[in-house]
Amino acid sequence: MYQYFLMVLFAITGVSLASSVKIVRQGDEALVEIFGKYDRKKLEPGLTFLIPFVETVAYKQTLREQMLKLPPQQCTTRDRVSITVEFIVYWRIIDLEKASYKVQNLKEAMLNMLILSIRTHIAKLAVEELYTARNEINNALVEELDTTTDPWGVKFTRVELRDFAIGSKVIQPTSFERKEVQKARA
């Protein structure tokens, strides 16, 4: 009976010690909660020991730059032409505490902000301006999104207009710009 009790005690001790060892990879960060409350304890890259059953890793995220490809979005230009645009967005978390506790679902919230911002900017332009104002659209979106998502601890590094379509015809902005430059030189 005594031996059985010791084996169970050693098993529980071994499991609790194994669960208290946490490894955070380079470029990642983790937040620790003590009895369900965040007390400003962050785990930096490397090996860390937590107090079993008291401290738990609540959130673990990468701080590296990430890419978010938006699904094609239907937009209407200033001259009431319906177009479909595709954007790629590069972003990164700069404050894991804000990204974890200030917004319920970070990626979904960012996606909704992006769609709203894109539609608003496209609505200010005529179709012809989309060909030449690509960089201005990208830069304006980065500035606006940075301001909007600052309380969430997120930094947008780049927003790129991949292509857009009027009806079923896909137009690559970079190829059109080259043709316009060649026409202007001739």
Automatic annotation (TrEMBL):
<dbReference type="InterPro" id="IPR036013">
    <property type="entry name" value="Band_7/SPFH_dom_sf"/>
</dbReference>
<dbReference type="GO" id="GO:0005886">
    <property type="term" value="C:plasma membrane"/>
</dbReference>
<feature type="domain" description="Band 7">
    <location>
        <begin position="19"/>
        <end position="180"/>
    </location>
</feature>
<protein>
    <submittedName>
        <fullName>Paraslipin</fullName>
    </submittedName>
</protein>
<dbReference type="GO" id="GO:0098552">
    <property type="term" value="C:side of membrane"/>
</dbReference>
<dbReference type="InterPro" id="IPR001107">
    <property type="entry name" value="Band_7"/>
</dbReference>
<dbReference type="InterPro" id="IPR050710">
    <property type="entry name" value="Band7/mec-2_domain"/>
</dbReference>
<dbReference type="Pfam" id="PF01145">
    <property type="entry name" value="Band_7"/>
</dbReference>
<dbReference type="InterPro" id="IPR001972">
    <property type="entry name" value="Stomatin_HflK_fam"/>
</dbReference>
<comment type="similarity">
    <text>Belongs to the band 7/mec-2 family.</text>
</comment>
